[in-house]
From TrEMBL:
Domain of life where this protein originates: Bacteria
Gene3D superfamilies attached to this UniProt entry: Impact, N-terminal domain
One of the record's GO cellular component terms: cytoplasm
InterPro entries attached to this UniProt entry: Impact, Impact_N, Impact_N_sf, Ribosomal_Su5_D2-typ_SF, UPF0029_Impact_CS
Native source organism of the sequence: Chitinophaga polysaccharea
Ranges annotated as spanning the membrane: none
Gene Ontology biological process: regulation of translational initiation
Xref: Pfam families: Impact_N
Family recorded in the similarity comment: Belongs to the IMPACT family.
Entry-linked PANTHER family: IMPACT FAMILY MEMBER YIGZ, IMPACT-RELATED
Boundaries of every Impact N-terminal domain copy: 18-122
Protein name: Putative YigZ family protein
């Protein structure tokens, strides 16, 4: 596993069934904190909605996930939403579907279809992007070798996660798994650079 698939844009789609209105929101998220923030945002925007159902999958291996029915019959909302995320094989994604009840009961099969369709529609609006699975490393070095360090970082398409650049520099980078070995060889060749792997 050297790559994973995700989204990097938000989108919203609408689906209607027998008077009920479903609004699906898709968000790129990295943490459960981000999930909570996005959920709070949607609830603030739709305080009068009957339900705010959602599902998310997080992590490059997609091991963290949750499906919430928010008062709908068990398994009729969160699961079909998660099913759409999984059918696209994407991760670091949250989909919230807001329902305004329209007076007619849809029944469990109707609900499953409505939540599934809402999630599918919103995902159709966003291109799926491929990202490198990265290993995190912490770099400490003197400002004088900054250019040498940055050259390797750029050539290997590393992501600069955080940096503190003064006379003495600290930097956290994400190294694509596909070039990790070669990148580390190059970094370790730079005199005066301390490279440490970040756990977790």
């Amino acid at each position: 596993m050297e790559v994973y698939f995700t989204i990097d844009k938000t989108a919203v789609a609408e689906f209607k069934d027998r008077g009920s209105k479903f609004l699906a929101y898709a968000f790129p998220v990295k943490t459960t904190e981000a999930v909570k923030e996005c959920l709070a945002e949607v609830k603030k925007e739709h305080p009068k909605a009957t339900h705010h159902c959602y599902a998310y999958r997080l992590g490059t291996e997609g091991l963290q996930f949750r499906a919430a029915d928010d008062g709908e019959p068990s398994g009729s909302a969160g699961k079909p939403i998660l099913g759409q995320i999984d059918s696209k094989q994407i991760t670091d994604v949250l989909i919230v579907v807001v329902r305004y009840f329209g007076g007619s009961l849809l029944g469990v099969p109707g609900l499953i279809n409505a939540y599934k369709m809402s999630a599918a529609l919103v995902l159709q609006l966003i291109p799926v992007i491929q990202k490198n699975i990265e290993a995190k490393y912490h770099l400490s070095f003197d400002y004088t070798i900054m250019n040498d360090v940055m050259m390797v970082v750029k050539q290997h398409n590393c992501t600069v996660i955080s940096q503190e650049l003064q006379l003495f520099c600290e930097m956290e980078i994400g190294v694509p798994k596909s070039t990790e070995e070669l990148c580390l060889l190059r970094l370790n060749d730079i005199y005066g650079l301390v490279v440490k792997k970040v756990k977790g």
